[in-house]
Amino acid sequence: MGQIFQRSTNFISRISIFGGVFFVALIIWLLLEFNRSSYYTQAFFPREQPVQFSHKHHAGDDGIDCRYCHTSVETEAFAGIPPTKTCMNCHSQIWSSSPYLEPVRESWRTGKSINWTRVHDLPDFVYFNHSIHVNKGVGCSTCHGRIDLMPLTYQVASLNMEWCLECHRNPEPQLRPKNAIFKMDWEAPPNQQQEGARLRREYNIPSTEVLTSCSTCHR
Amino acid sequence: MEEKVESKKPQWAMVIDLDRCTGCEACVVACHAENNIRIAGEGPAAGGRSVNWIRVERYYEGEYPDIRVKFMPVMCQHCEEAPCEPVCPVYATYHTDEGLNGQVYNRCVGTRYCANNCPYTVRFFNFLDPVWPEPLSKSLNPEVSVRYRGVMEKCTFCIQRIRKGEDKAKDEGREIRDGDVNPACVQSCTARAMTFGNIADPTSEVARLSKSGRASRLMEELGTKPRVTYLSRGD
Description:
The structure holds two protein chains of two kinds.
Chain A: H1 8-36, H2 38-41, H3 55-61, H4 66-69, H5 84-91, H6 102-110, H7 130-135, H8 140-144, H9 161-169, H10 192-203, H11 208-211, H12 214-217
Chain B: E1 12-17, H1 26-34, H2 42-46, E2 55-61, E3 68-74, E4 93-95, E5 101-103, H3 113-117, E6 124-125, E7 152-153, H4 159-171, H5 184-188, E8 194-198, H6 205-210, E9 215-216, E10 228-231
Parallel strand pairs in B: 1-10
Antiparallel strand pairs in B: 1-8, 2-3, 4-5, 6-7, 9-10
């Protein structure tokens, strides 16, 4: 009776055990990368909106301040979606017969709000507060990117927890002076590390342990 | 090397004056409304599945009709040496540097060890997904997570109000002070039996009251060092 296992089986079994470890590691790595991919996080995908609103035109070309529409960004957790009245402040006078703006005029006539599609949507167990970030030296473009160059709005950040923690662990590179918060084209000066440390003291930003404590964001 | 920026964190604590408590349960109602606490329904409630982050215990003394009832609101005591914390295998319950006993719902895997180890029985497990009969689902507080099936929940000292108060104080560039933060139960207490504040600040009301001669803590002998102090004459 011949042997069931050839001599080569030894070699194959060693290779498959060794390869199995790599295979499992590869699967885990692929899952993590999929979780980070913009296919999954929806970063860089513009959302379909009821009105073809262009931040590039309004914030970039016209130079309207962020706070003209997002009024509560400095005082509330939610930055605020402008009511139709804010649109009509200008559009009752200019482009008042443009077919693109028909949904806005309809909303104005009927009193029904425009159903904008949310672009930055965090999970429900995460609590983000705009006011504390804006008041502590984190500018709009740090998280939202160059909104003034976006014809259709998309998110530039993954909004993964690792992305939040990157800054909460080491906020210095992102801190800017108060007068630069709403500047879209702000760039870190060459001495940002010292400048960031100085601003951190000035803003009285708590220690990294506090910033990365679970209940800072989860409640 | 980066310079450590340390700001002194407040230490949250509560004082409940049992001599003032009338047992009206306004705190219980306020807590349910504030914290999106699910409604168990009649059957499950009878089976011990109701959720009350704060409950009012009743103690009867004497024989009818010479009866005296004593009330004691009991919620998570936010122990400094919390028995629930070391038993959590995934660090879903942990101690914050503000002395709060935190619960991270998205980390919780539902082992229920914490509830079994809690001497105050103030932790509640979600055996089912929560449902609210219409139109109550429209009254949910957006500041508080709705806990889903398979996670533990408990009193948070209204962490959403604490964060709001702290952020407001930070925006105004000052330290936290009495009145900045009031949990829903404290705010709604008709007899003003409950006081909440920063016990690390010696001028605060809770610091003053917790040194009172009437002060005691629930099951202090277990060594849990609760952050809730009860005041009672003890007669």
